[in-house]
Amino acid sequence: MTVIPITSAPRLASQASEATITTLQLPVASVAVCRMRYAPETGAGEALHAAEILAEVGRHQGLAHVDLEGPGDPMASMAATLATVALLKQQHPELTIGLTTLGLGIGEHAAELAAAGVNSVTLLVETLDAATAENLYAWIRPGKKTIPLKQAVPLLLEEQAKAVAIMAAAGMTVHVRTTVYPGINAHQIVTIAETMAQLGAMAMHLVPCVPDPQQANGPGVPTRVHMEQIAKLTSQFLPTKAQQVTVAACGCGCGVQSPGVPGQDPAAFDCSPDCGCGCGAVTQARPGLPKPSAERPRVAVVSSTGMDVDLHLGQARTILIYGPRADGLTCLLETRQAPEPGSGESRWEQLADTLHDCFALLAASAGGRPREVLGGRGIRVVLTEDNIEGTVDVLYGGGKKHKCKQ
Q: How is 193-230 classified by DSSP, letter by letter?
């Protein structure tokens, strides 16, 4: 299982409060089907389990739409995707549900997805040209094995073209999302919009590329003006929304930091909606870090040293409990015994009882089943290998201040 630094956890992408969020993006897919050549390697996050998804949806009032997406591809884990859709429809029938996918294999499952309750699909279409695709993709995995790009690219382009008409015929609204890579595919995007509109797509979303700083010869970030120019042209064929460019690329200098994890890269700051630069505001949100509540004010940690989060959950014999003291400082409050191994499924139920007042549990790694059981009992398992004190402080909304001296 991938270990994810706490600082790379998903964050809110707007300055709106949670009460005003209407669209939530949920990472539900753990298996990737492609790798973009110029994208940086990041710990984008892990797929949430069913119980964690329900808990995240329950945190937002007035939610209208949920989009199921990465960090992998929902079509690579069809059983989990369908189960998630069914669960959301059962618990929140008022929600509309979208799916974001590269499109491999979606044609044969379109009717099944529509019947399960998927209302819309966002297809990731970067190009219609084989040579450009070979430049953009590092690898593509149509099945369980990666095949040569020369074979994979024609298959991808063919399946994407067929999928649009099939999904539209199944009653799902089809959107197209295209990343703008200056000098590589930017000049092709109008053709993408025209072709996808003819096939049955209803809207387009343009996203600026985020180059890998380790690649000296990669494409640059498109400017705000460039994004607007492309959107104006594609709007002749499809209603187009262009994602705002970050402050680093826009150059407006408003420097407003979005809500999220302290210490995030300044290049990830969003422009203020009222700074006058025209960058706009993002109305979607991603699941944030878990938060304390009156019923669950504490954090559980598994560690072999008492300094860093370095244990697999299954190896823990004692659990450190952190929380605020009477004076408000967050400190180690006590230790608790973990249930003994060998009790099977009941071990994780016993652990949930032991951590009845905790909203999160920090571990270096954890199996899928304990995460699911604990998530269903209101305890989010957060995977990290960071320092305990600093990580706990982040969960309580702090930075490097207000640390407890022990």
A: HHHHHHHT--EEEEEE----TT-TTS--PPPHHHHHHH
pLDDT of residue 245: 63
| CATH architecture, domain 6-285 | Alpha-Beta Barrel (3.20)
pLDDT tens digits along 209-262: 887 777 767 788 888 888 888 999 999 999 999 886 654 444 443 433 333 333
Residue position matching structure tokens 């092709």: 188
Please state the domain extents for the chain.
Answer: 6-285, 298-395
- DSSP characters for 104-166? TTHHHHHHHHHHHT--EEEEE---S-HHHHHHHEEEE-SSSS-B-HHHHHHHHHHHHHHHHHH
**Cα separation, 125 vs 107, whole angstroms:** 15
Token look-up 């109305």 returns 283
Geometric angle at alpha carbon 37, from 30 and 66, rounded to 5°: 35
SS3 266: helix
Helix (H) or strand (E) holding 337: strand 330-337
Rounded to whole angstroms, how far apart are CA atoms 110 and 107? 5
Q: Whole-model pTM?
A: 0.62
What DSSP element (H or E) covers 27? strand 23-29
Residue type, 329: L
Do the two domains 6-285 and 298-395 of this chain adopt the same fold?
A: no
Is the domain 298-395 a CATH 3.30.420.130 member?
yes
Average pLDDT over residues 326-348: 85
Q: Residue 315 gets which letter from DSSP?
A: G
pLDDT in tens, 272-311: 333 333 343 333 455 667 889 889 999 999 988 888 888 8
Is it true that the peptide bond before 266 is cis, omega within 30 degrees of 0? Answer: no
Sequence letter at residue 383 = L
